[in-house]
Design a protein that fits this description.
Structural class: mainly beta
Shape: rod-shaped
Number of strands: 16
Strand content: 35-45%
């Protein structure tokens, strides 16, 4: 029975503590900091936002706790300012998630109070689009009709939102143009569209530059070389260089004597 008597008072203490926490836990402000904000900067003042005196921040043993246990902020007890502990990297903190919002609490221990805050880390356009390879080879049959579409490899950009890739262009573009399509994950990818028929005999290879452009101000770009190999088809017949050849031969010429050399040509290549 004595053990049961000790159990109930402890249970009441736990319940009372839970009620107190629920009553003193308040929603706070949403702070905004730009990506690449340097260590020691930011300057949000906790005393002002919590409505307490600066001295209370140290007296009540204030602590800043992020939900992921990272220490993005340090608290200056002399000024009650929140300061960035280390340079902020939006891509490292949130990946491709946008907006990048982190939850944190400010804990005042004596007496116990908890305030909830949010940190919104805004992306800056500090990264350029990059193609996985600097050169890509595309093989197109000579008889491909205009309007035929050929997928190209898309570039990557670690920035998010408007600072990610928004458009592709290709140049010179007398034979082709590029369509910018939306992928399933919101990423944009390029497609090459044939504008007019290719003539391998006129030009066997095209050298084009594909450019990816992001939406920053000013925009950043990345390029890759696109080599288009025009594949031959058997569309040309052999023909004689001279349609009529006249030769003279002596009547006493021995057997297997060379009479004349006849030249032919075929604009196709290889087995064709």
């Amino acid at each position: 029975m004595e053990a049961e008597k000790e159990h109930f008072p402890r249970l009441r203490q736990v319940l009372l503590l839970f009620v107190r926490l629920s009553q003193t836990c308040a929603e706070g402000n949403v702070y905004t900091a730009a990506e690449e904000t340097e260590s020691g900067s930011f300057g949000a003042n906790l005393a002002k936002d919590l409505g307490v005196e600066i001295r209370e921040i140290s007296q009540r043993r204030a602590r800043v706790i992020f939900n992921n246990n990272e220490k993005y902020f340090q608290l200056n007890f002399q000024t009650a300012d929140l300061q960035v502990n280390e340079k902020l990297d939006q891509e490292e903190m949130c990946g491709t998630t946008e907006p990048c919002v982190l939850q944190f609490q400010v804990l005042l221990e004596e007496p116990l109070e908890i305030y909830r805050f949010k940190l919104l880390v805004s992306d800056i356009n500090e990264k350029s689009p990059v193609f996985p390879e600097g050169e890509m080879i595309l093989k197109i049959m000579k008889n491909s009709p205009p309007g035929t579409v050929f997928p190209l490899i898309n570039a990557q950009d670690l920035d998010v939102g408007i600072n990610n890739i928004q458009n592709y262009i290709i140049y010179p573009n007398s034979y082709v143009h590029v369509l910018t399509q939306n992928g399933s994950e919101g990423r944009k990818y390029p497609e090459l569209v044939l504008d007019k028929a290719l003539d391998r005999e006129e030009q066997a290879e095209l050298s084009l530059t594909l450019m990816a452009i992001d939406g920053g101000a000013p925009p950043r770009t990345g390029t890759a070389l696109v080599l288009v190999e025009i594949l031959d088809i058997n569309d040309d017949a052999p023909e004689f260089v001279q349609p009529l050849s006249q030769v003279q031969i002596s009547e006493n010429s021995p057997l297997e004597s060379l009479v004349a050399t006849i030249s032919t040509r075929d604009l196709d290549t290889g087995i064709n």
